């Protein structure tokens, strides 16, 4: 039983990280209707940029600030040179353009900073929390806990930012109807710039946390890809959905990885590890059949 | 001056509805096919067959498959490579387990197997669209590759799922040289491309395009959405399945599930976008472009860099490849969303009027 | 209320007969239709019928539920309450493509053509309910599938001649001006040889000449092909001129039904159109 809890807690904690990446998607989707497939690549780019600066002798905090600057630049450039030229195209074209962007970033990042696996040292120990170990005999990594604490805090701050501030309201107005937002004097371009900057910041945080856990490497983009099923589960336009979806995906994939292989082994023989690789996607797919708009997404009525 | 349709009057609807209505096009296609079947084998080298021509044809077939689904029916898929994998492994298993089965029958059955799997993963398309569907097809991508890796029966108990394709024999003739494999692949691809072209200009193709352009209106006209989308998934996966079988049997010889990864799916998607969404011709142009670009970059970047004294490694070249691919995709989507096929069409229209501008 | 409606209908029949038109029995009747989206009521307890060969107009202010009414008739929306009887067969929830197969065709308020296809292909698509060959016949490029295609091309060409759009046959519809697109959309509906044609604001956004053309086509369709037509239109002059009977909706309720003259004199209708203050 405590094994179950360990897995569950571990899963939930990594789920928070998925939420974080998913949140970047949701931000951009809400404000511009663009489904930014490149969010995962942005995580990779951010982490690699930090590592790159540190490797050049820049102190970590300054490297983070510089990386943030780079993310903002990247976001602005994307908005200015790609998305703005595609205004009015079908959403699927925009989506494919962000796949192109993904490839571009995945080439650019190692081109600038090299492609060796590199560690980030944030100074948080990856060791069991003694109190939980003694009291309940459960192994929960301090790093995981701190990391998800940071992620959770960021999620809360963004949620408040979205709901309460003037910019947040403007963002929501833009998401509802570009034309209408423009007509009441909301500066569309500035709003988009802000959104891409925020999405870049979220990617940076996610990249730092994940990078310091598993090393900064190309595989990061695959982990980030898992934010997609999270979105499907939660609904593309819901901050709450991104959070809950992340937790569900994180927990369920861990449990599936632990409990399914023995069952399958009993049935078919052989070794069935690696279920984590597809489980979130299949779960999302099955979920779609039941509730196509996601847990918190808005149901749309086709008007004709 | 040569490309004119003036004087080619069409006296019946049958003439107007031919597969290539303009005489010059018919002649050009005929010459091209004759060249491909009889000309190329005379002088192309072994390298050309096995490194360029055979993969070009196979990728074009896979791109055609994806184009049927995405270009004609408007359903985006990110799992093309997985359906190719199904085809490759199905063909292998039919050859392995059914005594004396002709190889071509295996290929067809491989196509049908892929079609069945495609329909299964196409089911969600009845309720979801756009990016949601794209995410659902990712499930196919990861799940299928995993299944092929983990169930030893599928690869006849080989380690990590590697299979070696059996020898190809048709009517006692062995297809073991690059030329013979090329001719086999060419034959299959030509037949399937013509079939696709016929489908595209028939009721089936129109139903697909109607669903793509406006699904509610399509339904109101009397097009059953479910049937139409699932046929697109089935035909598309059939094409990808056969392409996968050829990929294993005529191109690589031995394949592993991981070879059919997300990267391959993306590459085929890029062929469709750059070649031209919703055209048969575009699949071929896109395949040629995506296949030749890396070779071109390899052959130009390194020497240039060396000449300039820049520290370029092979890794750098591959990074540049990524960037160029990505940039090209964005470029095409912005500048010419209908891809190379549209550019070709514009050229033809210009040619028709040449030397006058209008 | 019911008493008065019956009277109105009798008047309507009388007028139609005097005009010498062939108006037959009721082919479509809607009984107590109610439709809601979530909590929003779009249609409340609406009943009316359509007779064979007539031109039936649905009018009403914006948001009165006119388009929803058409959507109910051809199965895009499924009403929560009520009965729809078409050609003597009752149905409640029906998929739109099955409605099409029963002979109901329609056009849309915002043109819903297939933008990536040529005019000819759009019209050929309109004949989908009449074509029977499948995938494998189509793949061949010769044989029965091809022959069917040719036979239907013949039919489509008749529609093209009728609507005078020969010159734009091969043009992608996305490149056509608005007025022509509307005409092509009518053509696509006609290609299906429907027994009931639903037109959602066929003249919206047109200039006077285009409107006149469209009016002529609608009347010709009704006259020469005997097609029953239900149309939504805002231009009162047009409605009064071409329709045999008119239904008036307001806020999802029926407030008038009868021949144009009768409806024009209905105080409820005047109130709805001019506002309570007048």
Explain briefly what this protein structure is.
Chain A is 74% helix and 0% strand. Chain A is built from 13 helices and no strands. Chain A has helices spanning 2-32, 39-55, 60-83, 91-113, 130-136, 142-164, 166-176, 178-183, 188-214, 220-225, 227-234, 239-268, 279-290.
Tell me the layout of helices and strands.
The complex is a heterotrimer of chains A (304), B (358) and C (278).
Chain A: H1 2-32, H2 39-55, H3 60-83, H4 91-113, H5 130-136, H6 142-164, H7 166-176, H8 178-183, H9 188-214, H10 220-225, H11 227-234, H12 239-268, H13 279-290
Chain B: H1 13-16, H2 23-43, H3 46-72, H4 80-97, H5 103-122, H6 130-150, E1 163-164, E2 169-170, E3 173-174, H7 178-200, H8 203-213, H9 215-221, H10 225-252, E4 254-255, H11 262-275, H12 280-308, H13 314-335, H14 339-353
Chain C: H1 2-18, E1 26-37, E2 40-51, E3 55-59, H2 66-73, E4 81-86, E5 89-91, H3 96-101, E6 104-106, H4 119-126, H5 135-140, H6 144-163, H7 178-191, E7 196-200, H8 208-224, E8 228-232, H9 236-242, E9 245-250, E10 253-258, H10 260-265, H11 267-274
Parallel strand pairs in C: 3-8, 3-9, 6-7, 7-8
Antiparallel strand pairs in C: 1-2, 1-4, 4-5, 9-10
Helix pairs in contact in C: 4-7, 6-7
């Amino acid at each position: 039983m405590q094994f179950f809890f360990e897995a569950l807690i571990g899963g939930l904690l990594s789920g928070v990280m998925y939420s974080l990446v998913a949140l970047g998607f949701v931000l951009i989707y809400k404000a511009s209707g663009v489904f930014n497939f490149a969010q995962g690549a942005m995580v990779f780019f951010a982490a690699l940029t930090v590592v790159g600066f540190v490797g050049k002798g820049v102190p970590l905090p300054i490297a983070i600030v510089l990386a943030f600057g780079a993310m903002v630049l990247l976001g602005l450039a994307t908005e200015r040179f790609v998305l703005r030229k595609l205004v009015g195209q079908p959403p699927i074209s925009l989506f494919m353009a962000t796949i192109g962007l993904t490839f571009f970033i995945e080439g650019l990042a190692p081109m600038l900073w090299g492609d060796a696996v590199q560690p980030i040292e944030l100074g948080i120990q990856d060791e069991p929390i003694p109190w939980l170990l003694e009291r309940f005999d459960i192994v929960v990594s301090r790093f995981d806990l701190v990391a998800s604490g940071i992620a959770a805090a960021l999620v809360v701050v963004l949620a408040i930012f979205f709901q309460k501030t003037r910019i947040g309201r403007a963002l929501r107005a833009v998401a509802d109807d570009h034309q209408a937002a423009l007509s009441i004097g909301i500066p569309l371009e500035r709003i988009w710039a802000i959104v891409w900057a925020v999405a870049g910041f979220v990617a940076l945080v996610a990249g730092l946390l994940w990078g310091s856990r598993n090393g900064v490497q190309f595989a990061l983009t695959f982990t980030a890809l898992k934010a997609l099923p999270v979105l499907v589960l939660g609904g593309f336009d819901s901050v709450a959905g991104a959070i809950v979806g992340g937790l569900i995906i994180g927990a369920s994939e861990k449990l599936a990885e632990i409990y399914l292989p023995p069952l399958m082994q009993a049935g078919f023989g052989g070794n069935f590890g690696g279920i984590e690789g597809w489980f979130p996607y299949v779960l999302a797919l099955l979920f779609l059949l039941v509730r196509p708009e996601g847990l918190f997404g808005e149901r749309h009525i086709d008007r004709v | 001056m040569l490309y004119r349709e003036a004087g080619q009057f069409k006296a019946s609807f049958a003439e107007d509805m031919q597969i290539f209505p303009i005489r010059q096009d018919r002649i050009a296609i005929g010459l091209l096919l004759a060249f491909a079947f009889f000309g190329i084998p005379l002088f192309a080298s072994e390298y050309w067959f096995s490194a360029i021509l055979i993969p070009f044809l196979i990728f074009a077939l896979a791109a055609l498959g994806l184009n049927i689904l995405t270009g004609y029916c408007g359903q985006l898929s990110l799992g093309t490579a997985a359906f190719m994998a199904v085809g490759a492994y199905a063909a292998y298993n039919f050859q392995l387990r059914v005594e004396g089965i002709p190889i071509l029958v295996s290929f067809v059955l491989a196509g049908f197997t892929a079609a069945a799997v495609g329909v299964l993963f196409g089911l969600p398309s009845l309720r979801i669209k756009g990016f949601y569907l794209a995410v659902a097809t990712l499930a196919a991508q990861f799940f299928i590759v995993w299944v092929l890796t983990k169930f030893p029966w599928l690869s006849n108990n080989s380690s990590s799922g590697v299979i070696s394709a059996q020898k190809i024999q048709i009517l006692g003739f062995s297809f073991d040289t690059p030329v013979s494999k090329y001719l086999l692949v060419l034959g299959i691809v030509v037949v399937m491309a013509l079939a696709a072209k016929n489908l595209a200009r028939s009721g089936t193709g129109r139903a697909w395009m109607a669903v793509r352009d406006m699904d509610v209106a399509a339904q109101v006209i009397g097009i059953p959405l479910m049937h139409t989308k699932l046929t697109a998934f089935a035909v598309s996966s059939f094409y990808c399945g056969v392409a996968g079988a050829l990929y294993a049997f005529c191109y690589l010889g031995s394949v592993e599930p991981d070879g059919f990864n997300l990267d391959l799916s993306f590459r085929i998607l890029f062929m469709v976008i750059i070649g031209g969404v919703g055209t048969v011709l575009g699949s071929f142009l896109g395949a040629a472009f995506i296949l030749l670009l890396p070779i071109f970059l390899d052959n130009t970047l390194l020497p240039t860099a060396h000449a300039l004294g820049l520290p370029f490694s092979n890794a750098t070249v591959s990074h540049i490849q990524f960037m160029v691919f990505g940039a090209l995709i964005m470029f095409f989507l912005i500048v010419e969303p209908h891809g190379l096929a549209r550019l070709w069409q514009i050229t033809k229209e210009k040619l028709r009027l040449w030397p006058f501008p209008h | 209320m019911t008493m008065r409606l019956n009277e109105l209908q009798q008047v309507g029949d009388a007028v139609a007969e005097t005009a010498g038109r062939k108006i037959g029995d009721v082919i479509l009747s809607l009984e107590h239709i109610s439709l809601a989206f979530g909590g929003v009521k779009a249609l409340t307890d609406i009943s009316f019928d359509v007779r064979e060969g007539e031109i039936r107009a649905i009018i009403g202010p914006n948001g009165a539920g006119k388009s929803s009414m058409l959507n109910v008739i051809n199965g895009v929306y499924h009403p929560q309450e009520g009965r729809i009887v078409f050609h003597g067969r009752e149905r409640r929830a029906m998929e739109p493509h099955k409605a099409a197969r029963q002979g109901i065709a329609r056009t849309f308020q915002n043109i819903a053509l297939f933008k990536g296809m040529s005019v000819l292909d759009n019209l050929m698509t309109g004949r989908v309910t009449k074509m029977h060959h499948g995938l494998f016949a189509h793949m061949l490029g010769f044989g029965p599938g091809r022959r069917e295609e040719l036979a239907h091309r013949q039919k489509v060409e008749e529609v093209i001649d009728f609507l005078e759009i020969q010159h734009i046959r091969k043009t992608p519809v996305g490149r056509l001006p608005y007025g022509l697109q509307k005409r092509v959309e009518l053509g696509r509906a006609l290609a299906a040889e429907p027994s009931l044609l639903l037109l959602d604001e066929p003249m919206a956004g047109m200039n006077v000449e285009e409107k006149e053309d469209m009016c002529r086509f609608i009347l010709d369709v009704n006259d020469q092909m005997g097609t029953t037509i239900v149309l939504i239109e805002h231009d009162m002059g047009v409605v009064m001129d071409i329709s045999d009977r008119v239904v008036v909706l307001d806020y999802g309720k029926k407030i008038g039904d009868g021949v144009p003259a009768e409806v024009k004199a209905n105080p409820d209708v005047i109130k709805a159109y001019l506002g309570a203050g007048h």
